[in-house]
Amino acid sequence: MLDFKDKVVIVTGGTRGIGYEIVKSFIENHATVILFGSRKETAIEAVEKLKKEGYDAIGFAPNLNDYESVRKTIDEIYKNYGRIDIVINNAGISANKKIEETTSEDFTNIMNLNVNAVFNMSKAVVPYMKEQKEGVILNTSSMVSIYGQPSGVGYPASKFAVNGITKSLARELAPFHIRVNAVAPGIIKTDMIANLPKDMIEPLIKSIPLGRIGEPRDVANAFLFLASDMANYITGVILQVDGAARN
Ligand code: NAD
């Protein structure tokens, strides 16, 4: 059933874009939702914005690149709420520079957030999920994790790694009834895409067989499904939500 009553859900990168829509979707389905932002101020702003729209969420801002910071926040959440049922590792940054212009620092930064943060979050929640004898970890991958992309090599590299973490942890944690899956969005209308000029967007739309750019809600729906009991026998999948786009 798509009912998350009594479920505690954590969404990283929940302050805007896809993550914000995931937060709203789970609240609509009666979950207790905790969003993580990159800074305290952005987390507070997002919680206030949600409140104005009629949604109640809780905000935190651990440093996702630092295991100790993540562990402390996860410990606090477990102490306060008594459960952690679903963790959605959604925070991410992209890249599009050619390799000559990409610095080692650019490459490391993208790996730190898109990959190390997924490891840190998973490592911190798994002991609690094992204690509960159930749990769901979901990661935001990307269609570039299937096809690569012609610039910004760190971004597809990081999303291939996310798929690797997903498939490996799915096998490691299945005996403990912890399911691990990923959603691989195509081109989704977040701030990044909404601000692109029309002459760039139109050919992009034409190249998508379903004839439109994805909405954050299209992606959120896939997370709802994978987190729900309807997906009880699904683990280790990378679910493409891309209208069959091929970049
Ligand atoms: P966005 O830029 O709107 O949101 C990114 C989120 O990540 C924000 O909530 C931000 O607070 C958080 N974040 C950024 N840097 C952070 C940091 N250092 N520490 C903690 N949090 C940080 O982007 P989005 O489009 O909503 O992307 C969300 C996820 O979806 C990302 O993992 C992205 O790679 C993936 N994705 C997006 C698209 C797309 O077309 N928009 C396509 C495929 C995959």
Any overview of this molecule?
α3 (67-81) packs parallel to α4 and α4 packs parallel to α6. The chain has nine helices and seven strands, in the order βαβαβαβαβααβαααβ. By secondary structure, the chain is α/β, with parallel strands linked by helices. The protein has a seven-stranded parallel β-sheet, sandwiched between helices. The protein has helices at residues 17-28, 40-52, 67-81, 104-132, 144-147, 154-173, 191-194, 198-206, 216-227, and strands spanning 8-12, 32-36, 58-60, 86-89, 135-140, 178-185, 238-241. The two termini are 34 Å apart. The chain has one domain (8-240): NAD(P)-binding Rossmann-like Domain (Rossmann fold, 3-Layer(aba) Sandwich). The chain is globular, with a radius of gyration of 17 Å. Nicotinamide-adenine-dinucleotide binds at residues 13, 15-19, 37-38, 42, 64, 90-94, 113, 140, 142, 185, 187-188, 190-193.
